[in-house]
Amino acid sequence: MKSEQFHLNEVERRNKEIYLSEKNKELYTAPMSYEEYYRLVSTNTQIEDLRAFYRDTTKNGTGLTIVPNKIYAQTNIFLALHGRYSYPILHNHDFVELIYVLKGSCTNFINGKAIIMNTGDFCFMAPSTVHAMLAVNDNDVIFNVLLHEDSFTQYFPHILTRRDRIGNFFKNISVANNATPYLLFKTKGNEKIMNRMVQSFHEFTDKNLFFEDLIGAYVNEIFIELSRCFTPETLIENSEKNAAAFIHPILNFIKVNYNTVTLKGLSDIFSYSEAYLSKLIKKNTGQNFKQIVEIARLEEAKYLMQNTDYTLTEISQKVGYFDSSHMNKNFVKLVGLPPNKWLKQSKNEI
């Protein structure tokens, strides 16, 4: 592959400057939700603004589940280099993502755990798995391969009948909709896999006649090589943890949309039944859906009380209460003090 293809592009160079500045470096230490990123971009014009991209490419424009769209709609196989020095924003997909580290390393935040991927590591990400990627060195070269479900039978006709972990991974996605969240293979720089990945990237960028068919053949060859040589080193994450990993984006979504969110709407966005979603929220927070919404409403009221000149009546209306007496009642119930006394106390503590 031509070395110039690995040079930092303009966006990466700009993001690198932000990363190297002391006040922004800490933002790269942990993944952030789309809502957190949205607020960050709103107050910092230096940061690359991807809000339009997430609105266009995610389910219902919520910034979480990336779906086939005008960017990915022209092909069932999509390849790209992962952007270096970009913020690790939590997301998932409704397609399979393959991640391959050609050079350097990266951090893959999966289900609340930071997994370091080094040269030669090959990771399969199931559609529902929430994760975020971080690569903060010039020599980090990471390929992302996106496989829509239609590609399973189109380019890998025998994948669903294979009796290995990769075959089971795709079978559970296609048939049972209950795939292992991720598979990670340590290939230690296997040359066959490396060459096929580089060739696949060339095919996708050049887009010559039948390029998708050839990429499919290369990727299929990689799958076979992985199954033959590296299955014993596969790492499998428990699927129960994957559901729990959704709690962070779920809570952030409620926090931002407390005035309009409903349990049914939330279940549609995150593709869970209302009953299961209620159980998931209760299990991970100790509170039910209505309590979480109420807490989000009061947190916004606190913010407005401390940072604006609105009256309590105006604030109560802005956060969705019928009147200030209703807000006062819930404030005492959850905070232990009426709003005016809480505000006075908070000012004394500063």
Mean pLDDT: 84
CATH class bucket of the largest domain? Mainly Beta
User: What is the global morphology?
Assistant: elongated
The spatial strand order of the largest sheet comes to 2-9-4-7-10-11
Instruction: Summarize the amount of helix as a percent range.
Output: 40-55%
Strand content: 5-15%
Helix and strand string, N-terminal first? HHHHEEEEEEEEEHHEHHEHHHHHHHH
Q: Could you describe the largest sheet, including whether it forms a barrel?
A: 6 strands, antiparallel
Number of domains: 2
Number of discrete helical segments: 16
Query: What CATH architecture label of the largest domain applies?
Result: Sandwich
The stretches of 5 or more residues where confidence is low (pLDDT under 50) are none
The counted number of beta strands is 11
Structural class: alpha+beta
InterPro entries: AraC-bd, Homeodomain-like_sf, HTH-like, HTH_AraC, RmlC-like_jellyroll
GO molecular function: DNA-binding transcription factor activity; sequence-specific DNA binding
Domain HTH araC/xylS-type: 248-345
Keywords: DNA-binding, Transcription, Transcription regulation
List keywords for this structure.
sequence-specific DNA binding; 350 residues; Jelly Rolls; alpha+beta; 3-stranded antiparallel sheet; 6-stranded antiparallel sheet; Arc Repressor Mutant, subunit A; 16 helices
Topology:
Blueprint: H1 10-20, H2 22-25, H3 34-43, H4 51-57, E1 65-66, E2 77-81, E3 92-93, E4 96-103, E5 105-110, E6 113-118, E7 121-125, E8 131-134, E9 141-147, H5 150-155, H6 165-176, E10 182-186, H7 191-206, H8 211-229, E11 235-236, H9 239-245, H10 247-256, H11 263-270, H12 274-285, H13 289-307, H14 312-318, H15 324-335, H16 339-349
Parallel strand pairs: 1-3
Antiparallel strand pairs: 2-9, 4-7, 4-9, 5-6, 5-8, 7-10, 10-11
Helix pairs in contact: 7-8, 10-13
